[in-house]
């Protein structure tokens, strides 16, 4: 298959363009060379981008795919007129029909982050990240009541990356708390969690997969042994069932999927 | 202004749909009610979505905006035929022209994460998150050479959230290391960092903004005082300049912007 190049062009960070392009490209059995071009925010930079795109067109002998979220009209005009790629204009395509539907002009503002130090939403998101880090792995019970959600589960069931994703992507304060052998012997939830039952969400995992993951961290340890993983998972599942906590198996799920299910289930918007 | 509802509909997590819709909606001075509908992956669920959309259309007296990344053709057919919203079909719109350009059919596969426990890319990303957490705030010098980037700067200059974003979004191993008064007295970089000068990236911040941020954590402390913030920032900037480390001011920048600039600057792909 002849080589192709895909460009991701934005007048901002290009993260939306890249996320979008990844999702679209996953629909095809191709693996193009990827070139990221963030901060293309002047006609001058647009011309530089055009030069690269047209060079790739010549070298590849195939039209490059040019995914763009540019909103600056001057920049877009240069790309439209001059680039020899296939322009996949994810904003422009929808902006005109939306202007008509909404009966208003768009503002052509770049990105969502022009003034972060003054944005309450951004401030809250950073706060959520800090809160989540402070409350990782049951480090502290202080302010636990301020959590939007408290994840529980055995060590390495996916609590930490999921908590961080909930904070980073959705601005949620996500604590997480390990279930450990002492809890299983006592056969009750860690006492600090009891007042917050409605905020608890349990993660579980297939013992064989858990053993694999733990073996990467501590090879050939009792901690990572299949036998111990089976014991811990069975105990943790039984405990969560007794306590009436919703649980989800993370075995084949991405942190995006786990986080989306938690958010939907606990109705966190 | 009459009320409007925006729906984000996906057969996967809907995170791409939501990211995209947020970026598009930021172009207009409207603030619609937002309804997320992930995992709409069967005609049955599509019908349920249609009912909600058409209900909103009636209540609002305005067509809802329906942002969708659905790739399942049966689901899409129901939405197209039955929903009384304005369908903003970010995948379908581009898939047909791309099929033509590429000379192949798309696979209509949902999401990128169908088999995460077997995906090397996903595994590496989780590893990067774990590495980044282990190397937060100079906690350990072990494996420091495996870092893709090492962020340095004074306490609360934005190192931790930026590191986590680099790991979470781009799968980069991002360590971070604080510059502290002892370093300023010694007037040299922390010795552990010296071998990795090429991986260092400095974050700096306006002292007044730093004082604000620190005051949220430790009100009225010497640590948060404007005088101390001025001293630390001046010393850190001088040290990074002497060491020839690239630096960026985070004062008005989002973690997305900071991460994108670092990635571009250090040529981390």
TrEMBL record, chains A, B:
Residues that coordinate or bind ADP: 153-160
Annotated TM spans: none
Alphabetical list of InterPro entries matching this protein: Kinase-pyrophosphorylase, PSRP
Coiled-coil annotated residue ranges, if any: none
The UniProt record lists the keyword Cytoplasm: no
Keyword Transferase found: yes
EC number(s) stated in the UniProt entry for this protein: 2.7.11.33, 2.7.4.28
Single Gene Ontology MF annotation: ATP binding
Keywords (A to Z) from UniProt: Kinase, Nucleotide-binding, Serine/threonine-protein kinase, Transferase
Top-level taxonomic group: Bacteria
Catalytic reactions of this protein: [pyruvate, water dikinase] + ADP = [pyruvate, water dikinase]-phosphate + AMP + H(+); [pyruvate, water dikinase]-phosphate + phosphate + H(+) = [pyruvate, water dikinase] + diphosphate
PANTHER family linked: PYRUVATE, PHOSPHATE DIKINASE REGULATORY PROTEIN 1, CHLOROPLASTIC
Function, as annotated: Bifunctional serine/threonine kinase and phosphorylase involved in the regulation of the phosphoenolpyruvate synthase (PEPS) by catalyzing its phosphorylation/dephosphorylation.
Protein family per UniProt: Belongs to the pyruvate, phosphate/water dikinase regulatory protein family. PSRP subfamily.
Name of this protein: Putative phosphoenolpyruvate synthase regulatory protein
UniProt source species: Tepidicella xavieri
């Amino acid at each position: 298959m002849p080589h192709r190049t895909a460009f991701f062009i934005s007048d901002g960070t290009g993260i939306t363009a890249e996320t979008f392009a990844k999702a679209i490209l996953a629909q095809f059995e191709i693996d193009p060379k990827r070139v990221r071009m963030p901060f293309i925010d002047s006609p001058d930079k647009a011309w530089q981008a055009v030069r690269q795109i047209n060079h790739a067109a010549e070298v590849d002998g195939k039209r490059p795919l040019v995914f763009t979220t540019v909103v600056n009209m001057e920049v877009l005009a240069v790309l439209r007129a001059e680039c020899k790629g296939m322009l996949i204009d994810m904003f422009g395509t929808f902006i005109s029909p939306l202007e008509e539907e909404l009966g208003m002009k768009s503002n052509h503002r770049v990105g969502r982050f022009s003034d972060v130090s003054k944005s309450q939403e951004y401030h809250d998101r950073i706060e959520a990240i800090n809160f989540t880090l402070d409350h990782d792995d049951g480090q502290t019970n202080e302010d636990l009541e301020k959590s939007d959600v408290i994840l529980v589960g055995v060590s390495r069931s996916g609590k930490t990356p999921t908590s961080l994703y909930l904070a980073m992507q959705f601005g949620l304060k996500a604590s997480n708390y390990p279930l450990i052998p002492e809890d299983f012997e006592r056969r009750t939830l860690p006492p600090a969690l009891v007042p917050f039952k409605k905020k608890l969400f349990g993660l579980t995992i297939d013992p064989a997969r858990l053993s694999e993951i733990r073996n990467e961290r501590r090879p050939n340890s009792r901690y990572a042994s299949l036998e111990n993983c089976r014991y811990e998972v069975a105990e943790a599942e039984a405990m969560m069932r007794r306590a009436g906590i919703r649980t989800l198996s993370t075995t084949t799920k991405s942190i995006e999927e786990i986080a989306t299910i938690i958010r939907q289930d606990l109705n966190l918007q």
